[in-house]
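Protocol step 4 of 5: obtain the predicted structure for the target chain.
Materials: sequence only (see below). No template structures provided, no constraints applied. The aim of this step is simply to have a reference model before the mutagenesis design in step 5. Sequence pasted as it appears in the construct record:
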Amino acid sequence: MEEVSKHTFVLQQLRELFLAMGKATLFNLRFFRELFFPPTEWRETLKQCYLMGWKSLPLVSITGFIMGLVLTLQSRPTLVEFGAESWLPGMVGTSLIREIAPVVTALICAGKISSGIGAELGSMKVTEQIDAMEVSAVNPFKYLVVTRIVATTLMVPILVLFADLVGILGGFAGISIKGDISLISYATKVIESLDFIDIIPATIKSCFFGYFIGMIGCYQGFNASNGTESVGRAANSAVVIASLSIFIIDMLAVQITDLII
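Step 4 output (structure tokens):
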């Protein structure tokens, strides 16, 4: 009996997993269908871009500066030991732009934006505001979901580029603490160490980060069950799943980039 119950439990978990994957796939397909058919909610999209981009800028700025500063201070002793201190600006710039800034910024957005979307839409679902929009002849999916996903897809890459710039300035601050180098010389060494191929893959995967951050937050909130507890679960699930998806996308992006290069 015990083996039968375990077998039943496993089958039930697999069934729920495949059902969730099917619902998520249909949700994504509906997004693309609604995206390319008018009307387009431009005003709401711009509003969400402001809320997600501008409101996240202070946190991204502080984090980016600290990333560059700490990376420089931690790496400098090792490079000095091998007589390669001149490589420090290039190493900091390449590390930030290729990997550190996109992933850390996306994780910040997953915690701040994806959880906010999940909680907001979950609250609207529980209080039947989404049903009221449908009764009022307003397409809630286009107004609530499409606008937010488009906003995150656009804003996360911009925030990543800003984090790159601030992180490089943080690296200059770290070098200035222990060494003597001008800003122009530092910027020249950073630019010389970068190739065009370093920026493009990072920007492309940042777009995917933004898409999945918005998609997961909207999916969790839009499909919240009745009850106030589901709002918290939607916000928590949005953060956890979005963060996990960022690492998976980053792993795949690194493999694809290595194959192409």
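Step 4 remarks: Residues 24-260 form one domain. The chain has a mean pLDDT of 85.
Proceed to step 5.
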